[in-house]
Amino acid sequence: MVTSSSRAGPVVEVSTSKTGKHGHAKCHFVAIDIFTAKKLEDIVPSSHNCDVPHVNRTDYQLIDISEDGFVSLLTDNGNTKDDLKLPTDDSLLTQIKDGFADGKDLVVSVMSAMGEEQICALKDIGPK
Fold first, then answer.
1. CA 55: distance to chain centroid?
2. If you placed Cys at 66, which of 41, 55, 70, 121 could pair as Cys (CB 3.0 to 4.6 Å)?
3. pLDDT tens-digit profile of 47-93?
4. Nearest one of 27, 5, 8, 4 to 114, comparing CA atoms
5. H or E segment at 58?
6. Domains in the chain and their CATH numbers?
7. Residues 82, 78, 122, 99: is their CA dihedral positive or negative?
8. Are residues 79 and 61 in contact, defined by beta-carbon separation less than 8 angstroms?
């Protein structure tokens, strides 16, 4: 994982340039954003450190879906988390809406990194 322009993603390619007449060799990182799947690129002097983001993945039971696209999730301590929107991925969105409409008990996985959160997966834990 590397941060590039305040984004987080797994590194898929690293290349280095030779030391030039004006200083250090450079490292070219290519990563894929964990939230948007867009390609990220960053060039850093080889003598510098790179930030590594802390990524969490938490499961919550889905309680409700509001008309404006927000979800209500049950936390481990019994409170609700109501600040997340439905995912933009069409396949996952359809699975969540259809499963909820069918009355299934659903658990969503929420990935969080660098102050951003997004539903990234779904588990069906059976009928209500």
1. 8
2. 70
3. 777 777 788 899 999 999 999 989 999 998 999 999 999 988 889 99
4. 8
5. strand 56-65
6. 1-53 (2.30.30.30), 55-124 (2.40.50.140)
7. negative
8. no
DSSP string, 1-54: -EEETTEEE-EEEEEEPPPBTTB--EEEEEEE-TTT--EEEEEEETTS------
Q: What's the distance, CA 54 to chain centroid?
A: 11
What tokens were used for 71?
A: 């979800």
CB count, 10 Å around CB of 98?
10
pTM over 0.85: no
